[in-house]
Amino acid sequence: MSAADTLIRARAAGVEIVVRDGELKARGPAEALATWAPALRPHKHELLALLTAEPEPRPDWRLLDMAYQQHHFNCPQCIAAGKGYGSQP
Question: Average of pLDDT values for 14-43?
């Protein structure tokens, strides 16, 4: 099981895993911690990297929409694909 899968399953079991002062800390019900602690230990370094990684920046949807609109309204094929939509035969 990969580190990401282990993290997802542990969280589903009620184990909260956080990074504090560069160390992994797990909180949750005692039974869940007893079950998941052995599964988390082999992935310690991967989990630390996963939880401290910077999220990838999201592209601005407005720029993507503008590029789509510019293409759509200047492309004969795209314009033709929408002709007749909503009209009755």
Answer: 91
pLDDT tens digits, residue range 45-85? 999 998 998 888 888 999 999 999 999 889 888 887 767 66
Tokens of 76: 């004969």
Q: Are 48 and 19 in contact (CB under 8 A)?
A: yes
> 72 with 78: CB under 8 angstroms?
yes
What are the tokens at 59? Answer: 């592209």
Q: How far lies 65's CA from each of 44, 70, 81, in Å?
A: 41, 9, 19
Structure tokens at 50: 């996963």
